[in-house]
Amino acid sequence: MRVPARLAEVWQHEPGWLEALPRLVAECAADWNLELEEAIDTPHSLVVPAGSAVLKLNAPSHFEADHEADALEWWNGRGAVRLLARDDARRAFLIERCVPGTRLWDSGVDETSVIGGLLTRLEVEIRGAHPFRLLADEAVRWADEVPQRYDEAGRPFERALLEFALDVYASVDGSTTYLANQDLHGANVLRSERESWLVIDPKPLVGERELDASGLLRNTDSVERWLDVLGDIGLDRERARAWGVAHNLAWSWDENRRVWLPEHVDGARRIFNAR
After folding, report:
1. Strand, helix or coil for residue 6
2. Which of 206, 226, 225 has the alpha carbon at shortest distance from 214?
3. What is the mean pLDDT of residues 95-109?
4. Is pLDDT of 1 > 90?
């Protein structure tokens, strides 16, 4: 099996995992009786189509993907791809394959209408025990790490942006328990046969529902329009904007290179300036 070049570049700090990937994939293929195709050239996870399924493996330090399979299991195919099998020891799982698999971004279909409908179907308030990390705990971590990185980098963007994000972290609602997706956007929604569109690659946290807005606002030139759409389907418009700024600022730091990513900071700034 060939490890995609972009994947090898992103996870070069995990040489042991990269070296083990061919073996891990071969073991999964044998256990799940898969006929593997060529790996997709994507940088964040190893993704290998296999007939009507897709095999996916995540790097050990890719902690934001720790509970991806759990989220898919929780949704049980309702608006998202079905989880077919999992092997947590290998950080591997098998999902249904979307056919034809066209990204929503590339389809010419209105993104707000599709994802607006999906969000209402994916809405789950979790009660009782669950495996997911909490937004409230992540907010505590971000409140510590983001200003440290800001100072270490020589204050690379306006203080107002940082102060706004810190206020959001401090005001996190720890009593709210929705299953939220940190990385929902049109590249992670694919055309399928079972349902018209299905969500892939969730990065789940349990907390405020408005966190779902983060990826949508980060990946659009029409922030105000998206805020209106989110408000129309029941999200708090201002809180969606708030998490759009605060979460995207936290995700603007490249841990491997130890730098702030200007285009990501600019995305947080655009959301901050939206009304």
Report:
1. helix
2. 226
3. 97
4. no
> Is 183 annotated as catalytic?
yes
Three-state DSSP at 131 gives coil
The active-site residue, picked from 31, 70, 173, 183, is 183
Q: Are 217 and 248 in contact (CB under 8 A)?
A: yes
* CA 47 – CA 69 distance, rounded (Å): 14
d(CA 150, CA 160) in angstroms, rounded, equals 12
pLDDT number for residue 2? 87
* pTM metric for this prediction: 0.96
Task: Identify the structural domains of the chain with CATH numbers, from first to last.
Answer: 5-96 (3.30.200.20), 104-273 (3.90.1200.10)
- Residues 180-202, mean pLDDT to the nearest whole number: 97
Q: What length is written for the chain?
A: 275
Residue 1 CB neighbours (<10 A): 15
Question: Average pLDDT over the chain, rounded to whole?
Answer: 97
Annotate 169-183 with DSSP letters as a single string.
Answer: HHT--TT--EEEETT
Q: Sorting pLDDT into bands at 50, 70 and 90, what band is 257?
A: confident
- Kindly state the percentage of the chain with pLDDT values over 90: 97
